[in-house]
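Reviewer comment 2.1 asked that we show a complete input and output for one of the modelled complexes. We chose the tryptophanyl-5'AMP case, as it is the one discussed in the main text.
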Amino acid sequence: MINKKLVFSGVQPTGNLHLGNYLGAIKNFVLLQKELNCIYCVVDLHAITVFQNPKELMKNTLETVASFIATGLDPNKSIIFNQSSVSAHSELAWIFNCVSRVGWLNRMTQFKDKAGSNKEKASVGLYIYPNLMAADILLYKATHVPVGADQKQHLELARDIAQKFNKDFNCEDFFPLPEPLILKNISRVMSLRDGTKKMSKSDESDYSRINLKDSPDEIIKKIKKAKSGSEPIPDNLKSLEEKPEALNLLNIYTEVLKSNLEKTINEMAGKEYSFVKNKLTELLISEICPIGKEIKKLINDETHLREVLNKGAEKARIIAEENLKNVREKVGLI
Ligand code: TYM
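Response of the prediction step:
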């Protein structure tokens, strides 16, 4: 039987959350929580696929919870917890390691990007990471997964795993095929320094991104330094597409303003980039800085953040254990 709608998504606790995480994913988490049952997970087991300093990892896990709450997620409405506190994630991931195919994982572009030229030295965890991600989602039989465009391929793999499991164990419809919810207009926020690369926590230059905790001064400096163009803003999308940095700035402006790109182009055509940069800076300061302030306030109350995680994990465990019990039966594990 196919479940009713259930939303699941995850964010890695690897440091500062940025505008890409916020506009591409977390803002949508908050909207979805109004209508549907939602589970949001701080995926600490994913983070350790690349070495993390243990103290930093704990701090970043709590800070990610603080960021969830500061952006509007409500622990009384959504289940908020950290992945490693529900051990069923790891157990289902192992079962999926045996369902998923090496050929499927070999196609994952994120592994190639992250492992770079030194594939032999990458952790095995980094390679099989998409199987764990499939387990995160399917453990709850989630039907909808809000993510940025960079996670699309992983979602396709999760669907392939669900399908193969249902076929191998002769249980049609046991796992739903989870659908990615990728925002049309802002599925990929790009780096402020290079419009062909996505905005990322791992970029060496802090000038490439706006962090949720940035001060107004930092936002002013970063937008001022952001790459744009020397000619006036063009009046059509085609010309703008040849300038990915400029297009990125206009896309961010449009998204924060809740407008559409056509309107923005009409408003900005013929103006200097300094004009859009000034407007964007104002908008970002009013959208991001209150969130940053709230994060900084919340991270001082570690007891409360741990309580949120514990309560969330208790709720998650109930669903996870029931589903895992059924999976074990299907697979023939006593
Ligand atoms: P992570 O932690 O890298 O990013 C969290 C979310 O932010 C989105 N995102 C972006 N969206 C638009 N533009 C950007 N520049 C940008 N950068 C990041 C990501 O797409 C993501 O939605 N593998 C996942 C975490 C994960 C997960 C899951 C997600 C683990 N298990 C199950 C969904 C369901 C990741 O590393 O996200």
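Residues 8-12, 20-21, 24-25, 43, 46, 133, 136-137, 145, 147-148, 150-151, 154, 188-189, 198-199 surround tryptophanyl-5'AMP (CB under 6 Å). We note this here for comparison with the apo prediction described in Section 3.2.
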